[in-house]
Protein 1
Amino acid sequence: MTKIIVRTNPNLALIKYWGKRDEALMLPTKSSLSVGLNALTTETIITQAEDRDHIKLTFSHSVEAVQKIQSFINLFRTTYGVKNYFSISSSNDFPTAAGLASSSSGFAALALGLATASNLNLDDRQLSILARRGSGSAARSIAGGIVIWHKGQLPDGTDCYAEQLFDQHHWPELRILIIIVNDNEKKISSRDAMRLTVATSPSYQNWVASSEDRLEEMITAIKAKDFTSVGKLAEQDWYGMHDAMRDTTPSLDYWTSTSYTVIETVKQLRAQGHNCFFTTDAGPNVFVCCHKDNVAIIKQTLASLPGVLGSIESTVAGKPTVTTL
Ligand code: PMV
């Protein structure tokens, strides 16, 4: 029986996605830009099954996680008129307990694996549109490298997909340090939290409106490898997302005191001449970007802060790989 092995990487947004204009189709209110994280990999193995779908996640026992995947498989079958069942086994080579978002790599792997196992010849745009239906950020994990996810305008979402702007060789000196911060609280899901932000945050619309210019400037800065401008724009975008989350009702607070200490320390390191910048997702971990020559001092300084559990160093990831055995 043919066995498909797909390897994908999660991605980190420097211009964020937060909020949908269409919940069912997962269409975002704004375009976003991300880098793939080479140090983190999801591996998903897919074979055809006889009687029903079989889903095994080595990183989660959550019923909701399995249900989300089952709904995605059902949606895939309906969209492409596929009749088969699948056996799916998915694992991450990074500690999911550390709160590192694996939905981007997870649904990208699933979209690629299901399409390959069904002999559908989907291009990257179609795969990105498919992956988006599992988790918005998964749209970006199909393309690899440095990626733009176009928000699109059409009501059916056919122009809402991600594409590669620069491959993984564009900026070989760029490093992303994932600073792992303890997370004990059960947080509201990003899906529910986004809905609340769009509905209640007074600052949200301004952040969205200012984002298109920021995105254009970000692309220019990345093209020129202008690290200082990239950092400034990424932090501006983060502050906008953070403020909108904080003035949501009820207020969303994904960060711990350690997260804020890491952020302050990044600013101090920068003031001391070690060029670096930070961003976060909807969680307490802090992502710190820097030039490879600055990694040692930044890593050492941040790892010694109380509450920091560890760090992972990453370069920019390439495209996903698919192996058929
Ligand atoms: O698609 P989701 O549910 O993983 O949402 C991702 C939202 C952020 O990580 C906070 C921002 C982003 O653009 O990835």
Protein 2
Amino acid sequence: MSDYSRPKGTQDFLPEVQPYWEYVRTIVADLAREYGFERIDTPIFETTELFARGVGDATDIVEKEMYSFEDRGGNPITLRPEFTAGVVRAYIENGLRVQPKPIKLYSIGPIFRHEQPQAGRFRQFHQFNAEIIGTPSPLADLEIMLLAWDLYDRLQFRGLSFQLNSTGCPTCRPRYVDALVAHYHTHQDRICEDCQRRLQRNPLRVLDCKQAQCQPVIAAAPKISEHLCDDCAGHFSELLGYLDALGKPFTLNHRLVRGLDYYTKTVFEVWAEGIGAQAAVCGGGRYDGLIALLGGPETPAVGFAAGLERIIMVMEAQEVPVPPLPTPPVLIAHLGAVTRLEAVRLLAALREAGIGVQIAMSKSLKSQLRQADKAAARWVLILGGDELARGEVTVRDMASGSQQTISREGIVAWISEQLQHPA
Ligand code: ATP
Ligand code: MG
């Protein structure tokens, strides 16, 4: 046992799980490109103030989940607990607003939240995040939702559906919040302590409380859909019309909320079958107020984020086949000190020709062949004393076990020629 273990809630991604990650990253990049999203990479850490404002002081993330510290210069720094605030900061700071709208950006990378680790919940995890900035059109909401949908569809997730709500806007939401708070005040004695606090700080959040005692109060709560202004109601019904036209299954979920003023209108999740407690595989929505809040011009925007660990968990559980990562097709085995010089020359010659190759590093042929097996090499090129003397190489086909002899001058061309044909 090592004296050190990884920090709670983190993971080592060993080579054996990398094919899953590579596969998911490839699908994400292909999909984003097909949808016309460009990649943006922002720093893994930002000023703490950015997240306090951009995620919101009254959120669980800012209240209790951030990895925040002072750096050596005494600057308050936070490891990003989500992508959007950093992307919006970059949008403003780099003057992207002068470009024709909408601006469609995606990111993929690690996210940090100090949560209680459990199945599918980590302290360092990874998200695929996408934003459409600069348009109020419900088509943008639709495109974000379709992008999220197609991601899971392409990964062969089954039983997909949208959970959907509108959280209104600063015009209509305050009236709804008043009605909600009034309802809760008549049930003050039946709700959990967290909800008592939420009522003060961030009342909409009572709707996604998971405590059993709060469920009847939530069930009887007024619904925001009955309080939307004309603009929000029109936006929502246009979006629903598109989803209907495409035959995408959705459930109106009155409990789906974001607690903060700059989240507006659409909020959604994608749910998938067979992933138990983590039924939501991703979440997103519109945030028309955020860019102005962070110092930019009034700019509407919509986005979503998907957790990649949960995707991979499901793929492993459902044994979704993923292609193996490519390995070098050739391994050079050598027998005896004199052959080694020739072996490294052959190694260099093959690489010069653009052929993937490794050289064995143990002395016995048996363990060299074992290495070839593990490396999934297609051929082992064996250089023994006899081969060296005759100017030849023995080629062992690892799949069939058959061997043949090829001249040293001809071997690079022979391998190249073979590689033109699929194995
Ligand atoms: P949850 O309700 O599961 O806590 P959330 O509302 O905090 O999710 P978002 O902030 O919307 O989630 O993040 C989007 C996605 O990121 C989630 O749907 C999930 O797939 C993933 N995610 C969130 N927190 C974690 C975590 N601690 N570990 C792994 N994945 C996570
Ligand atoms: Mg969470």
